[in-house]
């Protein structure tokens, strides 16, 4: 790690914005000045300028009961109205909102007027199903326009959505439905992935199957979009086809105003324990910061830009920078259903050429996988429309940054490396294009109105050049308002570590360079980052021990060229299992098992069957030693182990398996 950091810290290349870009840039340096002069007044004026308030707010921030914040609490708005109707009212109804490309080549162009009408119909359908303010609706859909429509329709009626990534298993879906107590699930028969229809409805059926324990099921209805055309089972009375009920509903729907602190969504994310956390975001503050950052970080010119964020709506990036930010700003955006290499490795670049995409926002893991294939693939396409590139999800290594800049951005487009989290709701650290001279590998500076520090364990700000922990020192509008149903966990997880200072602890290590620019160094807890997706070691360990063969399991995130980190599991097999079975194929079976339990993204790259795990005297598994083994390093300090010989045994077993 330290050699990697030193290497990063020696990165001195800098790219100043071009004169033309700077001259036409949306963001101006006075944003920093006015935010600095009065942070609350700054956010209040952004909220007034960027959004429509049915009832204007007087109160900006209430921080009298930290860490529970409210923003704009006496104001009222409708999030869907802000993303739809007001653009139509302003005469932009004919502007294309969504340029949708199915993996199989299907295409749809949907204007703001059409999107407003469709969301209105679905809002009626939801109301007819009894959905009202604060009710929860689970959304389990592929990347099709209906995913956006569903989110906005839920928001329009004041209800709360919980989008569950379509790649998650029935068990993961069930846990999320139960935790939130969802009344309706919106899903599809299936969607296209890697050239085939991948079914979704069966997972919903499994999630809702009778549990045989007499527990009351919260879900009353399942609304099903027909996309894959695959056969599905039907539960009369519970299931409804979207195409039966939506077209029949009225396309006129009055968007009622709701208080700014009305919950907008719950999004589950991995924490350090096995149980995913339901991160809660509310309406006014969230939408303000999503819109502000989308406008300024992506230099949005809504009349001429074609924006494309490649994230799935199942992740926070898909919430803030596919659904809410772009639509609040009246942007035209591309949405693509499928995988980047279907049916050919140039698919993304073909889409950029076809729609003349100007702004591309994606993840380092995707960039590295394109690097691996080679520049000849993107170079077959005309990428000259691209004028701005964004990165999110994990640290982007300078090599990938440079490749992104030169091959995709043809040495012209600025790159914004944006640091933020499910919990922060919107971008917190990023260059502003046209203002900041960018540096490969560094996320650089807090956005205007956000206060970030790098501190030591005692909460003291470190000197430039030193490393420490990343904290947010002041409340921000799109901050999480809590963990669904678990206020204690909210306080413990984020606020206890620096309670004396009142700082939010992000869980990331960071360092400031001599210019004061911030470099992110990865998680400091047991959360892994695989292809930009957060996975918890504990969650995968509990899936592994749920298998009949496993006695004990330890999971680590090991460095991986392509995915940033990869899941590597060490498992001890039960004696009883060993006596009755051969170990042939067991590692593969355990990999597949995790994929079924949690979802394919959680499937370990390697599963090693070992006789013992390294533990401290207090019984804590020392994952850092296992990470050394997984990465093929010299094993670090073992003096705190109860049995110092155990690492030699494990190394022997891993070497044999390799
Ligand atoms: C938006 C998103 C959050 C974690 C975060 C950090 C990592 C995100 C990053 C980055 C370095 C960046 N992360 N962006 N690390 N540079 N530009 O990814 O949210 O899924 O909640 O993950 O991702 O470790 O703490 P989420």
Keywords:
658 residues, alpha/beta, Rossmann fold, GMP Synthetase, Chain A, domain 3, seven-stranded mixed sheet, 22 helices
Tell me what the structure shows.
It is an enzyme of class 6 (ligase). It catalyses: acetate + ATP + CoA = acetyl-CoA + AMP + diphosphate. InterPro entries: Ac_CoA_lig, ACAS_N, AMP-bd_C, AMP-bd_C_sf, AMP-binding_CS, AMP-dep_synth/lig_dom, ANL_N_sf. One of its GO terms (molecular function) is acetate-CoA ligase activity. Keywords: Acetylation, ATP-binding, Ligase, Magnesium, Metal-binding, Nucleotide-binding. It contains 22 helices and 30 strands. The protein has an eight-stranded mixed beta sheet, with helices on both faces. Strands 5-4-17-16-18-19-20 form a seven-stranded mixed beta sheet, with helices on both faces. The model has no long low-confidence stretch (mean pLDDT 93). α15 crosses α16. The longest helix has 17 residues. The protein starts with a helix and ends with a helix. α13 links the parallel β16 and β17. The protein is globular. Helix content is 32%, strand content 22%. It is of the alpha/beta class and 658 residues long. It folds into two domains: 432 residues, Rossmann fold (3-Layer(aba) Sandwich); 127 residues, GMP Synthetase, Chain A, domain 3 (2-Layer Sandwich). The structure holds ligand 6R9. Ligand 6R9 binds next to α13, β20, β24 and β25. The site of ligand 6R9 has 23 residues, from α13, β20, β24 and β25.
């Amino acid at each position: 790690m330290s050699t990697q950091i030193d290497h990063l810290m020696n990165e001195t290349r800098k790219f100043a914005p071009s004169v033309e870009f700077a001259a036409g840039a949306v963001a101006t340096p006075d944003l920093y000045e006015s935010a600095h002069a009065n942070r609350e007044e700054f956010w209040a004026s952004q909220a007034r300028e960027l959004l429509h308030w049915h009832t204007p707010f007087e109160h900006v921030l209430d921080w009298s009961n930290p860490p529970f914040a409210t923003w704009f609490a006496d104001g009222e708005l409708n999030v869907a109205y802000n993303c739809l109707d007001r653009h139509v009212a302003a005469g932009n109804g004919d502007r294309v909102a969504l340029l949708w490309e199915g993996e199989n080549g299907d295409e749809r162009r949907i204007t703001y007027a059409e999107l407003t009408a469709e969301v209105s119909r679905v809002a009626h359908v939801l109301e007819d199903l009894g959905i009202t303010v604060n009710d929860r609706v689970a959304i389990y859909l592929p990347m099709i326009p209906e995913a956006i429509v569903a989110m906005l329709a839920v928001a329009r009626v004041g209800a709360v959505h919980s989008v569950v990534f379509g790649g998650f298993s029935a068990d993961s879906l069930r846990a999320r439905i139960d935790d939130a107590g969802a009344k309706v699930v919106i899903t599809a028969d299936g969607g296209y992935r890697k050239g085939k229809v991948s079914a979704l409805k069966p997972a919903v059926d499994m999630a809702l199957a009778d549990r045989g324990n007499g527990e009351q099921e919260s879900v009353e209805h399942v609304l099903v979009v027909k996309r894959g055309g695959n056969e599905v089972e039907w539960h009369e009375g519970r299931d409804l086809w979207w195409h039966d009920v939506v077209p029949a509903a009225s396309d006129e729907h009055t968007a009622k105003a709701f208080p700014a602190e009305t919950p907008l969504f719950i999004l589950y994310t991995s924490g350090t324990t096995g149980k995913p956390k339901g991160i809660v975001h509310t309406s006014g503050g969230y939408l303000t910061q999503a819109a502000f950052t989308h406008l300024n970080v992506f230099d949005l010119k809504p009349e001429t830009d074609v924006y494309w964020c490649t994230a799935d709506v199942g992740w926070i990036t898909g919430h803030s920078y596919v659904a809410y930010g772009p639509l609040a700003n009246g942007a035209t955006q591309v949405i693509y259903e499928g995988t980047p290499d279907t049916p050919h490795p140039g698919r993304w670049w073909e889409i950029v050429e076809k729609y003349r995409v100007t702004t591309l926002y994606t993840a380092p893991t995707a960039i590295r996988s394109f690097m691996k294939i080679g520049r000849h693939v993107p170079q077959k396409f005309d990428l000259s429309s691209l004028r701005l590139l964004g990165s999110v999800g994990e640290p982007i290594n300078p090599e990938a940054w440079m490749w992104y800049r030169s091959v995709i951005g043809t040495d012209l487009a600025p790159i914004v490396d944006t640091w933020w989290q499910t919990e922060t709701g919107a971008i917190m650290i990023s260059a502003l294009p046209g203002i900041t001279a960018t540096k490969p590998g560094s996320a650089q500076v807090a956005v205007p109105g956000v206060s970030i520090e790098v501190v030591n364990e005692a909460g003291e700000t470190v000197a430039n050049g030193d490393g420490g922990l990343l904290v947010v020192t002041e409340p921000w509008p799109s901050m999480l308002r809590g963990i669904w149903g678990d206020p204690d966990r909210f306080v413990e997880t984020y606020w206890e570590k620096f309670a004396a200072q009142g700082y939010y602890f992000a869980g990331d290590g960071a360092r400031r360079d001599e210019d004061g620019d911030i470099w992110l160094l990865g998680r400091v807890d047991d959360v892994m980052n695989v292809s930009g997706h957060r996975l918890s070691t504990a969650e995968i360990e509990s899936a592994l021990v749920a298998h009949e063969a496993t006695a004990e399991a330890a999971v680590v995130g090991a460095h991986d060229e392509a995915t940033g980190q990869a899941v590597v599991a060490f498992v001890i097999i039960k004696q009883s299992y060993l006596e009755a079975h051969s170990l042939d194929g067991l590692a593969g079976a355990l990999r597949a098992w995790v994929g079924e339990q949690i979802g394919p993204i959680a499937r370990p790259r390697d599963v090693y069957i070992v006789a013992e795990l390294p533990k401290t005297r207090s019984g804590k598994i020392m994952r850092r030693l296992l990470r050394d083994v997984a990465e093929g390093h010299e094993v670090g300090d073992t003096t705190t182990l109860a049995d110092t010989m155990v690492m030699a045994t494990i190394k022997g077993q891993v070497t044999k398996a390799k």
